[in-house]
Amino acid sequence: QTTDSTAKATPVVVQQPAPNAVQETPKKKAWYDRISLRGYAQVRYNRLLETNPNLKCDQCDKSLGDGGGLFLRRGRLIFSGDVSDRLYIYIQPDFASSASSNTLHFFQLRDAYFDVSLDKNKVYRFRVGQSKIPYGFENLQSSSNRLALDRNDALNSAIANERDLGIFFYWTPEAIQERFKLLTDAGLKGTGNYGVFGIGIYNGQTANKPEVNSTQHVVARLSYPLLVGGKQIIEPGIQAYTGKYVVTPDQVSSGVGIEEKYLKDGFDDQRLAASVVVYPQPFGFQAEYNVGRGPEFNLESNAIEVQNLHGGYAQAMYRKEVGSQVLIPFVKVQHYEGGKKHERDAPGYSVYETEIGVEWLVHKSVELTADYSIGDRTIRNAQNFDNRQYGNRLRLQAQFNF
Amino acid sequence: QTTDSTAKATPVVVQQPAPNAVQETPKKKAWYDRISLRGYAQVRYNRLLETNPNLKCDQCDKSLGDGGGLFLRRGRLIFSGDVSDRLYIYIQPDFASSASSNTLHFFQLRDAYFDVSLDKNKVYRFRVGQSKIPYGFENLQSSSNRLALDRNDALNSAIANERDLGIFFYWTPEAIQERFKLLTDAGLKGTGNYGVFGIGIYNGQTANKPEVNSTQHVVARLSYPLLVGGKQIIEPGIQAYTGKYVVTPDQVSSGVGIEEKYLKDGFDDQRLAASVVVYPQPFGFQAEYNVGRGPEFNLESNAIEVQNLHGGYAQAMYRKEVGSQVLIPFVKVQHYEGGKKHERDAPGYSVYETEIGVEWLVHKSVELTADYSIGDRTIRNAQNFDNRQYGNRLRLQAQFNF
Amino acid sequence: QTTDSTAKATPVVVQQPAPNAVQETPKKKAWYDRISLRGYAQVRYNRLLETNPNLKCDQCDKSLGDGGGLFLRRGRLIFSGDVSDRLYIYIQPDFASSASSNTLHFFQLRDAYFDVSLDKNKVYRFRVGQSKIPYGFENLQSSSNRLALDRNDALNSAIANERDLGIFFYWTPEAIQERFKLLTDAGLKGTGNYGVFGIGIYNGQTANKPEVNSTQHVVARLSYPLLVGGKQIIEPGIQAYTGKYVVTPDQVSSGVGIEEKYLKDGFDDQRLAASVVVYPQPFGFQAEYNVGRGPEFNLESNAIEVQNLHGGYAQAMYRKEVGSQVLIPFVKVQHYEGGKKHERDAPGYSVYETEIGVEWLVHKSVELTADYSIGDRTIRNAQNFDNRQYGNRLRLQAQFNF
Fold it and tell me: What ipTM does this complex have?
């Protein structure tokens, strides 16, 4: 590219030196053309118009309710790039991770994956490392693109931090690669390229946790962004996973029982989800639903057992460009009925939540979101068989993209 | 290199292509022109001519006294830049942070702030995120610029690691922006631009700690670098903050009492400080003093209570250029009388310390400091009502700037 | 700024502006020409053809045996460069570090060293900071270059993570600098430049651990890559260290005794090693052996005492280029008899292991290794006086270089 444009500019052949070439690699691209750095950060305040400080949600945002203040919910640096014609890397630390409950802001991995493409056009790819599990549109969509401040409980309870260590295969025809790219570049809030078809195995204890039971989870997903009438894009998807999840002893309160077989091999952990997305041009719609089985605290036996779960969400949004700014009002309703395997004693949950909000792209790199949230959450665990909390609050977020 | 070869190649006007432009952002600057990386590191040895190995200071340097050896006191990578015409980012991990008392060198955030300027000339700015609290000149001055190896106890006991999560507003007229920049670029050891006027709110539990009491601290600062006689620059400043600080249960020894109201809402935490700096051209002088109130262990009631505190320091220095090298001998005296809210049981302190040292800029990126320190420190807590330690030591530091 | 000066300069000879020069440093090189970023990552699976899931080795790979799954063994980002004509920096976080037994993938330092050269040609260098201790060829060789998946127990038990905080002096004549460089650049798997002669002091508690006993270890090494017959390079080496190592209270089980003198000052920790490497052109050979003394659990006294240790390894390999790919089959045998000071109670070990494997450079940045390992390991500590485990397994690794 560099060479071409120079050549056009003048009839004399200019031997353009590779600018700033690193000395030890005279023939390959400079490091900063192979690896780039970008990122984003989200600073929040959730306490306005709060009617119930006991309405909390650890999976969502640890600064919700009593004790919460200004909070760095996410901070990400993304080192990524095509380091060779066949290898693409993506290494994303989060700099808002806790090393313990009262020491914040350590750097911990979110993604460290390595895409090896089998062909030059990257239609067939293997992905190795810690990455998002292809289960659910909202799970795969970057938090920097999501409208509502948190993911829905129903599908996000499948995989903490949406990620795990595994090996995946993705198939994406070239035309659809372009379309996936367009959906993020044009501000339509797509997932990026997780394949039209994806299949993989992963440890199953979720991100940044060691494997326990020596058996892998298996996941598969099919998703296709249909072009309808020359402009509208509709993306239906279906996905499922199965495996055995171990609730480790440090996550079980004394007195809570677990059958011998579950202790060693883990609990059945299986889900099936359907997704549909109508991208906002200008009106958009998005819905997902999943059913499955997994570990959940049983009030009657005072034990963790395999139980059914189900739930999902629906969201409508409208994208409005105002000069260089963009406004996207949205409304989202969600429901979940089932266990949360990642939390102590795998408590049972009944979640109903409605959110009405607006995302405002103030400037290309500064985004403000206001989200009025009306929630009703019941948690059932050994400490409290029926801890129901409901209330409303206004949540604010400033997001910085760089 | 680049210059030579192009110049030789052709006399025709060459349209220089944007070198190495990242493909997905054809119109904006390449990532490495928006974000840059620099940093510094400090390696120390504090045990020479040591007369009392029990004279320690956790707030200062954990390798002081018994058991100390070579120590990586600070290691910083700074990712910063004007990522758009209105957004400046500054993300600074420290790579010498402990995750627990015996595991060192984790990456933890110091700064992650985002400056949104209201005008093109950056006179009016909002700063969002974790950043230094505008309280005290020495607190704001980078450790890479400070002469003495540690900050003074009196003002630094206000905010551990000098930082917290908050929202700040800074006002800096353009001419003073230039002056602040000159004061750091010319090796005069200024603070950088924290505004002529700054005001903000922040959580109040200090850097990398979760908020506890749902109320914010408020801080304000006024500081002006006066140009005197065409060359000398004198910077007087005044600053104050107020809020409620919670001594969390994990920081209180069993048997030590805390009144109910303090437990929940926190202790009064209020300070007022005055600063004056005469920048070293060649002779310099610097002094700060603060008074206030905050949590402190009370010997008589065996409880943590709100008590008065006061203290400050004065420093004289002389800047001498010797060829490309710079030598800055200095002398610093300090005193503090009050509690340290960040330490277990908020112990009371009486601190007297004198330091005589010299900073030697050996080469543009290598700096050596020798600091002979004469200290007298008394700590009063539940374990020891009058733990007085005094002694002398020679401290050495090698600093690497990159 | 850059644009202006070019425009004014002349329509003819084009003054090539420093491309992308950072504005605040007009005269020095852009930051990305002073600092570069590269790295590598290793993803493993160790459970194929496993005959004994109780055959484990914490020092080697925590995912060996029962409970192990896919594992990110190492993930490294390397920020390095000649930041001035006399200062070279090397800062290497690992992003696969645990903050506790069940929270993985934190960023923790491996290297943070600063080379100050006394002469322009870098023949005489001081290295300050955390770096590899010059003890053992395989310890100094990057894991990205090693054929076998883990280092040998015998020499690697000397220094956990191969590193410590210290000050070192290295001497490398210019011709040998070139040769060391060639040995890594040409894929011959050298160590890089740790000097023909190196000497240094370091804390002695090993990487990322605080110093305890106020005394430093001393190390020295002599190593020379001899050019034999115009092509073959043979590198013999000799190295030794001495110091006092403290087994800290948190590393001692209750009931296990330690004599008073050892508790305070530490145990004798002394080793001497010989190395020889014949670089693979195409046939290669490599062997090291060390003897020494160090802390080891004594079954009879139920106490940790100073005991003798010895052991080493030998490896043969053959380097075969097949088009742009490289295949290196290898066989390695190792033996160790002695204590492991870094583990709880400094258990005694008897290790016999044979590995037969092949490294396959599939593409310039993707490397696969298969390693069939036949092991026999006995651990003697307070919990089990004779925990002998033997068995075989096939281990796989994918390494990504960027």
Answer: 0.93
